Amino acid sequence: MTDQPHDIAETARHWIVRMASGAMTAEELSAFRRWRAASPDNNAVFERERALWRALHLTPEQDRTTRGTWQRLGQRHRVRRSIRRSLFLGSAAMVASVLVLYAPVASTWLRADQWSGTTVQTLTLADGSRAILDADTAIATRYTATERTITLLKGNALFEVKHDPHRPFRVVARNGTTEDVGTAFEIRREEASVRVTVARGIVDVHAPHHAPAPVRLKAGDRTSYTDGTIASVEHGIAPEEIAAWAHGDLILDNAPIHEAVAAVARYRRGRVYVLADDTATPPISGAFRTDQADAAITAIAATAGMTVTHLPAGILLLRRQ
């Protein structure tokens, strides 16, 4: 990897390909951050190249179906160099036309302004608000003179908002929006739905099928929305259950084995594979420490009657005994 002036754009494209592949390691992420911080030119060129991809507005379906092509593109870095030059240096229209042919994709990580790895991260936003990101979480931030918008691209986040009556604070996740009315609230982007829980204050939850009237939540309230429809509101949620991960705790309540393992695996490096059917194993309930992910997985495996096999690169394999 080089940071010579004539190679900055090529280096930026390399990082974009690696991030889009979905296989970027923690070491590579650290190296990328060092490269980006090493020079204002490096950062400016990277932002320019990423902005071009953001302008394409690819759909989630395109993102899913073309991720493998991105990975192959990264593996063929030298062979495809001339193709990528035309992709990144051309106009948005040219890029879009080449996308049709070669189907690369701007993944979640390319759209993100901030992303976490295997640990919880606390961010101070430009307005003084705080965003606490769970592990494996990504957000994009857009502040203007009249509004503050955070897009939760992946994972879970707790927001402690500095109220500004002249600039609404909104969090967009899937096809719904949560608007602050001076509060702290958690948003969890789950596999098929988004869950909103208020720790203090008030928020309004907007979804297409409830327009124009939002659903108002107060402290201790929780709701979720799926496909634009907001569910009924739960009341009296205990404070310790709200964003427990922000304090190093992971609470599982009758979670299927795959869901339970996935919830823990976000706090460790290396993949975890479960060779079992959810219906063949008991649901998992309990409180675990996020800084002891392997111990939690071992406990979950024991509860489900499974063995844990350690493989190279930190990979764990759970299978029925």
Automatic annotation (TrEMBL):
Organism superkingdom: Bacteria
Single GO term (MF): sigma factor antagonist activity
Domain FecR protein: 121-203
Keyword hit for NADP: no
InterPro entries: FecR (IPR006860), FecR_N (IPR032623), Ferrdict_sens_TM (IPR012373)
Coiled coil, from the record: none
Pfam families registered for this protein in UniProt: DUF4880, FecR
The UniProt record lists the keyword Membrane: yes
Protein keywords: Membrane, Transmembrane, Transmembrane helix
Entry's transmembrane regions: 86-105, 295-318
Organism the protein comes from: Gluconacetobacter dulcium
Every FecR N-terminal domain range: 11-48
Protein's name according to its UniProt entry: DUF4880 domain-containing protein
Lineage: Bacteria, Pseudomonadati, Pseudomonadota, Alphaproteobacteria, Acetobacterales
